[in-house]
Fold:
Amino acid sequence: MDVLLALAAFVVVITTIVGIHEYGHYIACRKLGLGVRAFSIGFGPVLWRRTDRHGCEWRISALPLGGYVQPGPGFPEECSATARGVMAAAGPLVNLVFGFLLLWGWLVLVGAPGATTLVSGTVPGMPAEAAGVQTGDRIVSVNGTKVVLIADMAEVLHETHGRAVAVEVQRADGRTDTVTMTPVERDGRWLLGLNGTTQTIQVPPSDAAGYVVSFTWRIATGIGKALLDIATLSPNNDIGGPVRIAAMSGQALADGVSTVFVFIGAMSINLGLFNLVPLPGFDGWHICASVVRGVTGWRPGPEAAKRLALFQAACILTLIVLVLGYDLRHYGVFERLGALIGL
Structure:
């Protein structure tokens, strides 16, 4: 049952963020006067289809791992470089706006549940105690990055690798101080030695916006590091493909419906940012190609276009295989297989 719930949650999450992404492309095509022949959630055999009054066939396909929009006749031959660039950028942009609004609205209207940075105590002999942090204080930011939850602070500390950090502390009496602390490593984690308070807090709108922007930046830097690690086949426990996303979707559902909304918002931002990377076959690639075409006027001929399409498909397939490899490694599949065959 847990597996079925995880799969159901995965389908809901992927369908939502892919649907939002493709709808951005769809709206761009319509506004640019290109028309749309097909809008599909998923790949492979079509399970359901319906044609609207504009001639667009809406589809739900068997493999919910993506989607596509087929522009109307005349694309791309009769389409300007600017129009191609706008259409490519529309999908990621809608993902980013949707994710931002979802997370911002959740922080403002519902609040952030979990271990907040309101200090409930410090660990003797650790940096927080030495810096004079006391029960009732609240950690506002670390190195200029706003933090609401202990998990947010942990992510920032993880990036420091033990370097001293400037910590903004709001005292119980309302005063604000900035103190310098040097994290201490314990079991692979960088810690300051303070305990948070479990509560749900509603975040002021401006603070919520800053928090989501900081969160988006951390996702962007994480994507950059992940791509570098994939290119060099380096270990990275933060890289996850369909298997880990399914597991995380199931965990989010188990934690409550509100957590699912938050996860969808985070995944929408992730999808938007990743698609802006100029990898072959992704929106970032098409945006760059549109810029090159607009500046130089060059466009590939029919044979070159076919070879480029095959190259892009091969790159996407290679990336999928590599990411699945990280999934299997995370769950110890390779180690189990090695044990079975005596390696």
